[in-house]
Amino acid sequence: KIEAGRIDWELEPIENPADLIDHVVQTFRPLAAEHDLALKVKTTRPLPTVNGDSDRLIQVITNLMNNAVKYTPKGGSISLITDETAHAGSRVIRVRITDTGPGIPDEQLEAIFDRFHQVRQADVENKPIGGTGLGLAICREVVNYHGGRIWAERPPKGGTCVTFIIPVGGEQASLASGSSQIH
Length: 183
Ligand code: ADP
Prior knowledge:
Layout: E1 12-14, H1 17-26, H2 29-34, E2 38-43, E3 50-52, H3 54-71, E4 77-87, E5 90-99, H4 135-145, E6 149-153, E7 160-167, H5 171-175
């Protein structure tokens, strides 16, 4: 539906995005506890207003948190850090979700955002657990629509860190058209 431009975006000013992010993360506490994972949350407050589709941004955070829980073995930890920073001369809100899971091989850090791409078990011990390989492609669509960026890294200590940034004010988002392509 996203590819065909058949979804309606509901852009509105999100006045304190920290509330939205905290709300989503709190819903993961029981699941994290069930999987014996520590969940650390650090949110800068207040964060500036962004122009966005809150339901779709909630979906992005939900997908990223789901992956972190799904791929991190028991006893590990997940941290979510939200702050405001500068990116290429613009003010942005930045959300980083880091886990202590098996990590993603360097050469696949970009490909995981392609539709249906799943890291093979032979490459790393994180075989797909009932996934579709669509979650991150959808995340990228939503973030791109907001004029932002999303990428994955392998922190030096191991695990996976997925970061997304959304421009403050969101002028690009308000100028964007209703359809977009998956990159
Ligand atoms: P899936 O439904 O397979 O989870 P995604 O698009 O969300 O689809 O993710 C694509 C692939 O990227 C996953 O199949 C997995 O191999 C890898 N991946 C995503 N997030 C993580 C993570 N936090 N740790 C390790 N591997 C991950």
